[in-house]
Design goal:
The chain has 345 residues and is mainly α. Helix content is 60%, strand content 5%.
Length: 345
């Protein structure tokens, strides 16, 4: 229960905020928190079960201590580590005024502290959020994203990432990824320490556990990741004010991520769940082991959220490159006339 607590302790606050916005949203939020808590409980039980099968009661206690220590380390350091790994550079209102302004306005709409804003020099269009919580969160977008989407679609993507921050998903996914990784590590140790005659599993059972335990842990982790993506899509559409902006962006990001490599993500697949679309090519069409729901289902849900009379194209034509892009040769031109975005006052 110690490992589940971080995902549950914010439930009353989130529940109270959403309750004022309608029973349907309230029920959806509660359902997602309960489902996530159950899945994390299953993951924790699986890890402790592996420890028990290898070392009895002491093994189970050791497994719990290891999981707690790894969770604490990952929770405290994951944000800075992933930003360093992807060589993200922080931007300011002076260096990237348009992009920063979009994030600032959306954070205000979401009633969140202003996160740190980063850009990653990577041609694959993608984005992620990280950090221990709303007070020290960071959002990052690749140069490929900023050059591929117009301002409204960028707003939809950043709203999705801020929804992750508001829902504390960065903490939840750090916990699940850490426990899943620990299960795989302990299962590998089983070959060396689990083959004694006193082990009730026997050598065949140990080998089976080495194969099945990490697989089961991965499936639970992926189920949690997919459920949080759906909730962030819903929250992102609410924050930016138009579900079509995020839906349009997802279609473009999906197309781009399938055709442009992300070597950094391929080198560390454990970070794939952080991105708004799957950055990996290995499981691009493997729905069972995908860290994200299918693009078709995500887009369909977003389209259903929009009122039928809502203007899907409440924006001008897409810019070939965003006006905030440092490599945009037309960045000094006059911006086209358009309807005000929801982040503008």
């Amino acid at each position: 229960m110690i490992l589940i607590w971080p995902s549950l302790r914010h439930l009353p606050r989130a529940f109270g905020t959403e309750a004022r916005k309608g029973d349907r949203k309230k029920e959806s939020l509660v359902f997602n928190y309960v489902r996530t808590a159950i899945l994390i409980a299953a993951l924790t039980a699986l890890f402790m079960g592996v420890g028990f099968l290898l070392g009895g009661g002491p093994g189970m206690v050791i497994a719990l201590v290891i999981a707690g220590a790894m969770n604490l380390f990952a929770w405290w350091n994951s944000g800075s580590m992933v930003l360093r790994y992807y060589k993200a550079r922080e931007v300011t209102p002076e260096t990237q005024p348009s992009f920063y302004r979009v994030v600032e306005g959306l954070a205000r709409r979401a009633e969140l502290p202003m996160p740190r804003v980063y850009i990653i020099d990577n041609p694959q269009p993608n984005a992620f959020a990280t950090g221990r919580g709303p007070n020290n969160a960071a959002v990052a977008a690749t140069t490929g994203l900023l050059q591929s989407l117009n301002e409204y679609e960028v707003a939809g993507v950043m709203a999705h990432e801020l929804a992750h921050v508001r829902n504390r998903d960065t903490l939840i996914m750090t916990i699940t990824a850490t426990i899943a990784g620990a299960i795989g590590m302990v299962a590998n140790f089983a070959l060396f320490f689990g083959g004694s005659r006193n082990n009730p599993l026997g050598i065949i059972g140990v080998l089976a556990m080495m194969i099945l335990a990490p697989m089961a842990a991965s499936l639970v982790q992926l189920a949690i990741s997919r459920s949080r993506e759906y909730e962030a899509d819903r929250g992102g559409a609410e924050i930016c004010g138009n579900p079509h902006w995020l839906a349009d962006a997802l279609e473009k990001l999906h197309y781009g991520s399938e055709r442009i490599d992300n070597p950094a993500a391929e080198g560390n697949p454990a970070t794939a769940h952080m991105f708004i679309v799957n950055p990996l090519h290995a499981h691009a069409r493997d729905k069972l082991f995908s860290t994200h729901p299918s693009m078709e289902s995500r887009v369909a849900r977003l389209r259903e959220m929009a009122p039928r009379n809502e203007n899907r194209r409440e924006k001008t034509e897409a810019w070939p490159t965003g006006p905030w892009s440092e490599t945009n040769p037309n960045s000094s031109r006059q911006e086209p006339r358009r309807s005000p975005g929801p982040w503008e006052t």
